[in-house]
Specification:
Radius of gyration: 17 Å
Helix content: 25-40%
Distance between the termini: 39 Å
CATH topology: Ribosomal Protein L24e, Chain: T
CATH architecture: Roll
Strand content: 25-35%
Strand order of the largest sheet: 1-2
Number of strands: 4
CATH class: Mainly Beta
Length: 96
């Protein structure tokens, strides 16, 4: 399983550990990924994602997974998130 957030595209970064003597060794900065179920009000079911904790906060700020996915760029989303985005847009269009 790759270490990539399904909603924001945040992934592993690399950098250096720097000691007091300025010795540099390579290290990895891992995103804080969580497995979470989010309830979609439009689809009326829960959706499971592997997202970073900052993405969870952003979803809550936007007002839910439906509003987040509609406003998100498709290049940042995973294939499953793009699938749910299209389903939500289709259901919203049928409603209006």
């Amino acid at each position: 399983m790759s270490r990539v957030c399904e909603l924001t595209g945040k992934k592993v970064m690399t950098g250096n550990n720097v000691s007091h003597a300025k010795n540099r060794t390579r290290r990895r900065f891992l995103p804080n990924l969580q497995n979470i179920s989010l309830f979609s009000e439009v689809l009326e079911k829960t959706i499971k994602f592997r997202v970073s904790s900052s993405a969870i906060r952003t979803v809550e700020k936007k007002g839910g997974i439906d509003k987040f996915l509609i406003s998100a760029y498709e290049k940042d989303l995973s294939t499953s998130a793009c699938h749910y985005k299209k389903l939500i847009e289709k259901k919203e269009a049928a409603k209006s």
